[in-house]
Write a structure and sequence with these properties.
- By secondary structure, this protein is mainly alpha-helical.
- It has helices at about 5-15, 30-35.
- The longest helix has 12 residues, at about 5-15.
Length: about 55
């Protein structure tokens, strides 16, 4: 497998130093943004309305 060119490695280092997202690395902000906003069981089922014969 070929190695990344030095300029790419330098760019990755600069991005990492600035706290930017890097390809192939864990990104806690993305995990937070992509997480579901409503958790299963957070809300109950809506009540069933009684039939009034109409």
């Amino acid at each position: 497998m070929p190695q990344d060119p030095p300029i790419y490695l330098d760019l990755m280092r600069v991005w990492a130093d600035r706290g930017r997202t890097l390809p192939g690395r864990h990104d806690p902000e993305w995990v937070r943004l992509a997480a579901p906003t409503v958790l299963r069981g957070q809300f109950s089922d809506p009540p069933v309305l009684p039939r009034d014969g109409r």
